[in-house]
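Can't paste images in this forum, so I'm doing it all in text. The chain is below; anyone willing to post the predicted structure tokens underneath?
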Amino acid sequence: MPLLACMITLSAQEKVDQQMINKIREEALNKSKVMDIALHLTDLNGNRLANSPGYKRAATYAVDFLSSIGIDNAHQEAWGEFGKGWELEKAYFAMTAPYYKPILAYPKTWTAGTKGLKSADILVVDLKDSISLEAYKGKLKGKVLLPDMSYQYAHSFKADAVRYTDEDLQKMANAPATGGRQQRDTAQMRRMREQMQRMMAPQRFLTLLKNMAKDEGAIAVLSSSTRNHDGTIFAQGGGTYKATDPDNFLDLVLGVEDYNTLLRISKSGTAVKVDADVKTKFYKDDLNGYNVIAEIPGTDPALKDEVVMIGAHLDSWQTGTGATDNASGSSVMLEVMRILKALNIQPKRTIRIGLWSAEEQGLLGSRAYVAKTFGGNATNPKTPAHDKFSSYFNIDNGTGKVRGIYLQGNEACKDIFTAWLEPFKDLGATTVTISNTGGTDHQSFDGVGLPGFQFIQDEIEYDTRTHHSNMDVYDHLIENDLKQIAAVVCSFAYHAAQRSEKLPRKK
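Text version of the structure:
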């Protein structure tokens, strides 16, 4: 692509500053700090479960980093009461009879521990109906409970990691406008699949079993799913976390191979014994949730009170270090702010970053921020800031590079985003789709009539390996992809800040 020192026009006369894009690309691709930022948020920090010590360490690092690059107003901003923090301090689990076998097991979040090393018999429990469950009353004390669930191991005949093909992207680009019934992408479908998996289990009877187990003094209940195979364990949830909620019964998630091993041996008539030693800690000293907020003030007298936002969620689940969900997005957004400062960009509009907490519990941090700052729903009138808001850009689909952007049904932005992507065709970012994507923080903005957008990213191994699993660690990040994301997001933020008009809103 030739270097142009002037403003060029593409797609319905939308102006694109190629000279600035060249500078952004040089800084993002050849002088990047994104992997160092990611290292601090993952290996050097640990997991970032909402309100946990790990989250607070990460939020402190983010504020310190933003301050170090010359942003004076970086701070942690309370958004309201979240609930208890939780941390895993120790986890050991092994089969000790009929022979010794170490077993990888992860406690679900906000569950209690074992209060020391406990040796226990495995008790297989039939959960097919309430009559079956009733038969176990008075028999649970001192036992580790193994629901009689049929999890069939499925071999992986397809590659774990994939990128979108040209055909995939063309289908997205050709998706029809749906008049409010917006298309779902794989991110939304992923959430739906997870929900269906939970619904397939006899969840009501499992909850009753846990209540019985806690009352009678059982040690733990074991869980798995067909996704937990080949050393990858997806573990999330576990119970409630509000200040007044009781401690949740210990639920240990195993790989399907180990789960099935215990079940087969037990159902053969052979007694199975296990050792369990799990220590967890709850934090109740500060129940508030906190987002990280910072901004580069606008400089145009007529536009400086208008706001362009970029963001990602900073929290994670507990099994890995949340590298692809979502240290990748948070690292990119911090890197974007660094690039803007390194290039001494003086934006016409204010560019603000938001790193959100408790996204995994239902977009809680971003929803609370939007409600307080902008309002805009039936019970919360619009604030003056709502009318001065330009746009929000989000990253939260793993480590894969940007391939385009979802319009969220906002057809008026199609030509604008097509022009903004044109200079990044050589980096694989080309597609603008009318479709919707769900399950992350841009919905907090879109839900109150503000232009909020998520980028299309290559899936890589998000579904198959890293999303909410023990494999969500630094090694699964792709450096060149994160550099590319930073370049694209920075250019979008810059152009949104420099336009003569705010981005158009949905009709």
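Residues 323 and 473 are 5 Å apart (CA to CA). The chain has two domains: 47-82+163-190+287-498, 86-149+202-283.
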